């Protein structure tokens, strides 16, 4: 049984006979997309973990792309009807959109086991454990025999619009150069599965020999990494023409470590 943002009002905190629960099937997976409190936040979805595995994409409360202004959302690509409906319950309805995207992307929507979304965002729960990460949505049941705990909370990030899946990478850059400069460092990944856009790894004071780490959520599964593009910029004209390079760049993929 897959619960697509099961309802919160009149169901949260009720006995298991009344609401969806892991005792309802051999395997129950839940996608939480609108689990903020109903009062005052108008969250329609249940927040506690109630399945064998519970996915909290983007933290489970506010979905990217749902904060658009009402006019642009109602007059959407999908037409006035879907736009109006999304404006009223955008977070709630993201659950079925993620699910339908998951059918097309068997390797997408990896959920990382973690105690909280904040810890996931800071990289504490990266990479996937040895048994791997379950895929949110249609292929979640492939993980059925690997569950070791009573409740399993899983976190991931998604895109703002279709196509929704993102793939998480840890990028570590050690700089080389003669002197420290102010600016930012961007990195793009190239691989057998496709190329990413540029992601900012760090900004501020850039010191040679220092190592900077960032977790990026790429819009493609790059597969085997073939090339990494490194760019830096110091934002303003510097008459001394400082030079900065990358001594090393390390890329770690979340799914296969």
TrEMBL record:
Q: What is its main location?
A: other
Q: Which PROSITE patterns match?
A: PLAT
- A molecular function GO annotation: lipoprotein lipase activity
Keyword Lipid metabolism annotated: yes
**EC number, UniProt record:** 3.1.1.26
Stretches assigned to the PLAT domain? 167-257
Q: Which GO terms describe its cellular component?
A: extracellular space; neuron projection; zymogen granule membrane
Alphabetical keyword list: Cell projection, Cytoplasmic vesicle, Disulfide bond, Hydrolase, Lipid degradation, Lipid metabolism, Secreted
Note the InterPro entries from the entry.
Answer: AB_hydrolase_fold (IPR029058), Lipase (IPR013818), PLAT/LH2_dom (IPR001024), PLAT/LH2_dom_sf (IPR036392), TAG_lipase (IPR000734)
State the reactions this protein catalyses.
long chain 1,2-diacyl-3-O-beta-D-galactosyl-sn-glycerol + H2O = long chain acyl-3-O-beta-D-galactosyl-sn-glycerol + a fatty acid + H(+); 1,2,3-trioctanoylglycerol + H2O = dioctanoylglycerol + octanoate + H(+); di-(9Z)-octadecenoylglycerol + H2O = (9Z-octadecenoyl)-glycerol + (9Z)-octadecenoate + H(+); (9Z-octadecenoyl)-glycerol + H2O = glycerol + (9Z)-octadecenoate + H(+)
Instruction: Kindly give the Gene3D superfamilies that the UniProt entry links to this protein.
Output: alpha/beta hydrolase (3.40.50.1820), PLAT/LH2 domain (2.60.60.20)
Where is this gene product found? Cell projection, Neuron projection; Secreted; Zymogen granule membrane
Task: Copy the pathway line from the protein's UniProt record.
Answer: Glycerolipid metabolism; triacylglycerol degradation; Glycolipid metabolism
> Biological process GO annotation list?
lipid catabolic process
Cell wall biogenesis/degradation: present as a keyword of the record?
A: no
Q: Which PANTHER family match?
A: LIPASE, PANCREATIC LIPASE-RELATED PROTEIN 2
User: What name goes with this protein?
Assistant: Pancreatic lipase-related protein 2
Query: What organism is this sequence from?
Result: Machaerirhynchus nigripectus
